[in-house]
Amino acid sequence: MPTADDSSESVDVSTISELTPPDRTLMGPGPSEVHPRVLQAMSTPLVGHLDPSFVEIMDEVQELLRYTFRTDNQWTIPVSGTGSAAMEAAIGNLVEPGDTMLVPTNGYFGGRMASMARRAGGEVVEVDAPWGEPLEPATVSDAVAEHEPDVFGFVHAETSTGVLQPNVPELTAAAHDHDALVIADTVTSIGGVELRVDEWDIDVAYAGPQKCLSCPPGASPLTLSDEAMEKVLSREEDPRSWYLDLSLLEGYWGDERAYHHTAPITNVYAIREALRLVAEEGIEERWARHERLAGALKAGVEGMGLEMNAPDEFWLPSLNAVRVPDGIDDGEVCSELIERYDLEIASGLGDLEGEIFRIGCMGYSARPENVIYVVTALGDVLESLGASVDTGAGVSAVRRALSE
Question: How far is residue 11's CA from residue 8's CA, in Å, rounded to a whole number?
Answer without folding.
Answer: 6
